[in-house]
Amino acid sequence: MTVVGEEGTSVDDYLVALKADFFDNCYLQQNAFDAVDAATPAQRQQFVFDKVLTVLELPLEVQEKDQARQLMVKISDLFRNWNYAAQDTEEYQKILEQIDSFIAAKGK
Amino acid sequence: MRKYYDEITRIAGNVITVTATGVGYDELAVISSKRGTSLAQVIRLEGDQVSLQVFAGTQGVSTEDRVQFLNSPMQVPFTDDLLGRVFDGACRPRDDRAILEENKVSIGSPTVNPVRRRMPDHMVHTGIPMIDIFNSLVESQKLPIFSVAGEPYNELLARVGLQANADIIILGGMGLRHDDYLKFRDAFEKGGVLGRTIMFIHTAADPVVECLLVPDLCLAVGEQYALQNKRVLVLLTDMTAFSDALKEISIIMEQIPSNRGYPGDLYTQLARRYEKAVDFDGAGSMTILACVTMPGDDVTHPVPDNTGYITEGQFYLRNGRIEPFGSLSRLKQQVNGKTRDDHRAIMDACIQLYALCRESREKRDMGFEMSPWDHKLLKYGSLFEKKIMELSVNIPLFEALDRCWNILAECFDPAETGIRRAVIDAHWPKK
After folding, report:
1. Contact residues, chain B, for A84 at CB < 8 Å
2. What distance in Å separates the CA atoms of residue B415 and residue B405, rounded to the nearest whole number?
3. Which residue, among B348, B353, B373, B428, would best test binding to A if mutated, counting the most A CBs under 10 Å from its CB?
4. What is the full DSSP assignment across B20-82?
5. Inter-chain contact A81–B421, Cβ cutoff 8 Å?
6. Same domain, B116 and B9
């Protein structure tokens, strides 16, 4: 996109770029200053990875780029807060439900 | 009995060599010549050949002149009468007031034993958001300001001196222009802090060797105050001038030059001084903020390069602003977790978004179309620069954090900032 600009990129390709950002921000990166996010057990990592993968493979129906961006901002925010929530807390379950309903509705 | 030596075997630059015995390293001597008397310091011993730096220069010194050794290294008087005074690099009054002679302490003493130090964890509040929020200064930290000639680094240093919550401010000027010295003095006078300030000023017109003593004088006095339970802030400007003075002397001494002509022990010389920064267990502390001008804005120059290995981070001052990228206070995580619960979140979010804004600007400059998101980032960037990054902004930490929240709320939806929900719920400005 640095070569052809956003206007030279199709919505589908743009979505791929957004999903790559999402993967980077919400799975590859951690906040080492957060007690929960600093050390995630392998079991939880696998569980989160499966959810991340589902989102990455989710066929999102978007017409325009800003709509795509807003969808990905929403799901990124959910995952980020999910990473901060200790396992088996109320907060953890609540965000998990929100993520599942996002996936079920394909972002709609 | 006074003992004089009169066998001067060599005069080169500001260094004379005299045949003498029973002399110690760093010891002071008085040289009497036709043009008066001057202090000199022993800088090399080789058998009975003693080399001395002559403070006033060797002009007028002849091989028949007499040298008298004082049997002690350079000393500085330590009394409360020092406060509000201005001295030169040889500790002579620069303000036409009385010479102080009492309670002398040696300069250039060794650094403090690590077991007598405590883990630094007190923040120094400066009222400059780019320091307080993003790279907090910590008591007993040693931090350089990397800058270029022409940037307002002396103004920044003076402001930190005025606004920081320190008990004693010690300014060490090396190779200063006379008007820069006057600016510092006026700033401290107007700011009402002159009464707790001590200045050791070497100007560009003074002998080069006196430049080398300025940091040692500052740090020796600072250490004494720190031992008396005071929080001391030492401001040094400019350490590149100090290093250049080292270089000049080492070349006269025919030492083998190292990188770009600087002496091979440049690192040691710098570290010996920076490592004086200390937070005493059971007493006060000494924090060092030093300007380092980078010739040609070259960070690989030996002076900033060596400095970077000693200090705990650095500030980059560019285009009149403290550059958020590259600037780093390595000790900030010791303090920014316990100021306010949103401090770290704001620090991360604001810088991330500002980095994205820079990317958007790059895109715009290459002629690409701006998306609605780009417009948000551009708006944020200009607000952030005007209300937070400008050096003229002078607000306390909490007010600065609130201001960051207002800027974020003006430009973004809460989810776009990447800040966790709990913090957003507690601090996002209500409309």
Report:
1. 420, 422
2. 13
3. B373
4. -SS--TTEEEEEEETTEEEEEEEEEEETTEEEEEETT-STT--TT-EEEEEEEE-EEE-SGGG
5. yes
6. no
Residue B338 lies in a domain: no
Q: Which of residues 400-419 of B touch A (CB under 8 A)?
A: 413, 415-416, 418
Task: Burial-class residue B391 by CB neighbours within 10 Å (0-12, 13-18, 19+).
Answer: middle
Q: Which residues of A touch B422 (CB under 8 A)?
A: 84
Q: Please tell me if residue B369 touches chain A, with a CB cutoff of 8 Å.
A: yes
If asked whether residues B61 and B190 sit together in one domain, one would say no
Domain span at residue B51 reads 4-73
Considering only residues 241 to 300 of chain B, which have any Cβ-Cβ distance to chain A shorter than 8 Å? none
Q: What confidence tens digit (pLDDT) does each residue in B242-252 have?
A: 999 999 988 88
Q: Is A78:A33 a contact under the CB 8 Å cutoff?
A: no
Tell me the DSSP string of A32-100: TTSHHHHS--HHHHHHHHHHHHHHHH-----SSHHHHHHHHHHHHHHHHHHHHSPTTSHHHHHHHHHHH
Nearest by CB to residue A5, choosing from B344, B368, B415, is B368
User: Contact, B288 vs B143, CB < 8 A?
Assistant: yes
Specify whether B182 is located in the same domain as B61: no
B104 touching chain A per CB within 8 A: no
The residue count for chain B: 431
CA nearest to A26 within chain B: B418
The interaxial angle of helices A65-84 and A90-104, nearest 10 deg, is 150
φ/ψ bin of B145: left (φ > 0), alpha (ψ from -120 to 50), beta (otherwise): beta
pLDDT in tens, B394-406: 999 999 999 999 9
Q: What pTM, to 2 d.p., does this model score?
A: 0.90
Distance CA B86, CA B319 (A): 31
> B389: closest CA among B14, B40, B133, B148?
B133
With a cut of 0.90, is the ipTM above it?
yes
Whether the CB-CB separation of B313 and B143 falls below 8 Å is answered with yes
Q: Which DSSP letter does residue B297 get?
A: G
Residue contact B369–A6, C-beta within 8 A: yes
- Domain harbouring B225, CATH code: 3.40.50.12240
The answer to whether B361 faces chain A, any CB pair under 8 Å, is no
Give the distance from CA A80 to its chain's centroid: 8
Mutating which of A18, A24, A29, A77 best tests the B interface, going by the most B Cβ atoms within 10 A? A77
CA–CA separation, B38 and B30 (whole Å) = 6
Q: Which two tokens stand for residue A103?
A: 């996936």
Nearest to B416 among A6, A25, A73 (CB): A73
For residue B181, tell me if it sits in a domain. Answer: yes
pLDDT digits over B18-73, tens only?
999 989 988 889 998 888 888 898 988 999 999 998 888 888 888 889 999 988 88
- Other Cβ atoms less than 10 A from the Cβ of A13: the count is 12
CB–CB contact B368 A25 (8 Å) = no
Reduce the DSSP state of residue B19 to 3 states and report it: strand
